[in-house]
Each structure stands twice: as structure tokens, then as C-alpha cells.
Amino acid sequence: MVERLTLENIGRQFGALVVSKDITFGLEAGARAALIGPNGAGKTTLINIISGALRADTGSVKVDGIDVTGLSQAKRVKAGIARTFQINRLFKDLTVEENVRIAVIQQQGRELTLLHRRHLENTLYERVASALTKLKLGHRAGHIVSRLAYGEQRLLEIAMALALEPRVLLLDEPAAGVPKGESGVIIDVVQSLPSDLAVLLIEHDMDLVFRFARHIYVLASGRMVAHGNPAEVAANEQVKQLYFGREKV
Question: Whole domain around residue 53: which residue ranges?
Fold first, then answer.
């Protein structure tokens, strides 16, 4: 089976500071994986490298076996990589539907010509409606974003990413700032996303990580120090030492 996402020997440093070193792993279609590590471990740096926001000094990034290492962030979106951010980036004075429409139009990178307007509008409508339905936000389509609960705003971010029809979805702390009682809803919805979509989650809440992930990757000082299923990671002595005394990792 061709991996949805393949990282080979990823390395990056800023001056003498090594933030990523020899990181190699892959995600198959349908993967539900988590990337964990203490603050400064290099998690967000790695997500930035995968998405194209940051270039690696060494190594390669592939989507479905195709090398995208040299592509810009916008071109990687078209190649099948979508992401969300720790802090939401929504147009809060617009409606839920308008936010998703904008995301799709930006990805397409073209205006709606008169000749193709009807076809493109129908396609756009279908993609927006499908994403909102999958994220349980269909009933909120006409609502102004600023009036949504914060948990719904985080779901909207994921809907915007999903509307881009990615093969790989990178979620950078999707439950950040969400009340504890609502964060599980986000994870449940993400868990139910299309079965051919590979999802990589960064999350500090270990309850959510172990609830969501079938495979966990552990970073420390920019290096991969452990990986495995939740039981294997929980039993790993190096991971225990790394996080001894920490409530969150």
C-alpha cells in the first residue's frame, strides 16, 4: 500500500539550534495518529515542514509517493495536504458557510468565469455542504461565526480544511481553548472523518490523544524518541522518564 504521507530523514536547524533531526515515518490511508512531546520538542516545526510553511534543510516529504518537498504551501494544499492552527484564523464577521467557501475558492486559485459559473458554483456548494455536514455544522451554515461557541469555531476550522479535499489532514491542537466537556466532541467528530483520510494530531491533552490515536509518535529535542500504539507508548521507559511528573505532554 502506498503511504499517504511519507517523511524521510527530515532535518532543520536555525543556526546552531537543531529543531528537527533525521525524522522518518509514514501515514497510510485512514491513519489516526498523534504527535506528542514537551514544549520545544519540535512538533509545530514538523507540521510547518510537512505543510510547506517551513522548508526542511534535509530530507523529503511525499504525498501518495509523489515528492512535494520543493512545492510551496499553496501547491501542497493542491497536492493533498491541509492543516489547522493552534489559534483559529476565521473571518468572524462572516457566516459559517462563507468561511468555508472562501477556503475552497482560495485553493482553486481562480475566479468564477461566466461560462463556467453555474458548474463551479454547484461544485463549490457541494464541497461546502459536505464539509459542514461531516463536522456536524450544517445547521449553523448561515450563522455569523462570532456568535458560535468556541468549540464550534474549532470544528469550523476543520470543516474549512476538509473542504479542500485533502489526503492528509494536520490538526495542530484542535481542542486548544475548548472547555474540557466539549473537547471530546471535537475528537469524536475527527475520528469519524472519511476512512481514506490520514490524520495527524498534535495535542497536549493525553486523554484526548489516547482516545483518538491508533499510533503515537513522540518527539523530544527535535528527534523521534519513540512510537507505537498507545499501550506501547504508555509502557515505554524512555517516554516515562521524559514525562515523569508531567500532567500534560
Answer: 1-80+166-249
Same domain for 131 and 210? Answer: no
Measure the CA–CA gap between 221 and 218, rounded to whole angstroms.
10
Number of structural domains, the chain? 2
Supply the DSSP string of 144-182, one letter for each residue: BGGGS-HHHHHHHHHHHHHTT--SEEEEESTTTTS-HHH
Q: In whole angstroms, give the CA distance from residue 149 to residue 30.
A: 29
First and final CA of the chain: distance in angstroms? 32
Q: How many CB atoms lie within 10 A of CB 87?
A: 10
> Whole-prediction pTM value?
0.89
Percent helix, strand and coil across the chain, each to the nearest 5: 40, 25, 35
Helix axis angle for 180-191 and 150-162, nearest 10°, is 20
* pLDDT the model gives residue 245: 47
* Residue 136 forms part of a structural domain: yes
Please report the pLDDT score of residue 119 as a whole number: 52
